[in-house]
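Hi L., both proteins are below.
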Amino acid sequence: MGKAETQKVHETMLAALSSGDMAAMAGCFAEDAVWHLPGTNPMIAGDHKGRDAVLEFLGTAAEYSQGTFRLEPIAFAYTDDHAFAWQRITAERDGRMLDETEAIVFEVRNGVVTEVWHRPEGDKLDRFFV
């Protein structure tokens, strides 16, 4: 794969996430994909192993924010097999606000995301998902 293909996979995934299209999201991830999210919150933190676990994690996050989840891209960079994202995430639930900047690295192989390293800002995600 080249940079253009990696970018296309990443952009397709972002569009599916923004529209809530879980079928399109499923097509973006390898069956054995892993999403690493540090933290201590049992609702979202940990290694989400397998496409189904990744989609469940993303669905839980979207559902918990009651439709208020917003992703604001700040910068992206691409190599032949990685997408690097710097982005702002906002959400609201029961009067609590999430507003954080985070870095995410996506490994892309054979046209699908195989591994994700998610680096949120401090413990803001842990505190939001209670």
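That was the first. Here is the second:
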Amino acid sequence: MTGSRLAILGYHKVGGPAPGGSAWYHVPQPVFDAQLGQLHRDGWRFVSAESVIKALTGEERLPPQAALLTFDDGYRSLIEYAVPVLSEYRCPAVVFVPTDHVGGDNAFEGGGEREPREPLCDWEELSRLEEAGVAVQSHGASHRPFSELSPAELRTELSGSKTAIEQRLGRPVRFLAYPHGDRGTDPHLTGDLLEQAGYEAACHCGGGPFDPWQADRFQLERIAVGADTDLSTKLR
């Protein structure tokens, strides 16, 4: 037993809502600032992805209440709106990127039908996020739900995304967030393929804080956070 509770918080966009888009996924910068302040006041301590991975294997002990901040997709707005707040709180974070779309936009979100088209970071901007303490990790390659992929396609998706990030940024990729929170038709097979590809942890959507020592490292719970999320209640 580690004696720790780990909360993995899943964000998408920090800034202001884009016209015509879903406001829930856009967390305004003042709200984001207030959420991090509340976490700190409630006794949560911000930890890095590396510390989380070490805790999963018993190599490192986390604080009694540990929080890992994550962002999906790699929106360019993170640089302007999220990084200053993260820096203020000395908060490391993770951004999970679908490598086929780096430098493009979020066309995978239904071509603007569900979410407005917004730019994603290019490789130079992802490098800047790394320098600011935001670790770039995998969100697959195409952002397709894993349940739509054959085992061979999934193997290619996992290895291709990992290789692309490592070659472009020169940093190891050990962590993945499932696109759409989809662990595939056989989560145990997905876990085997992740391990074969060299990943050490993966998170989905749903659940709450957990004991990292007892967790399945390829099925980590993650709490979706939006503009109206009351984290004090959510993490109680």
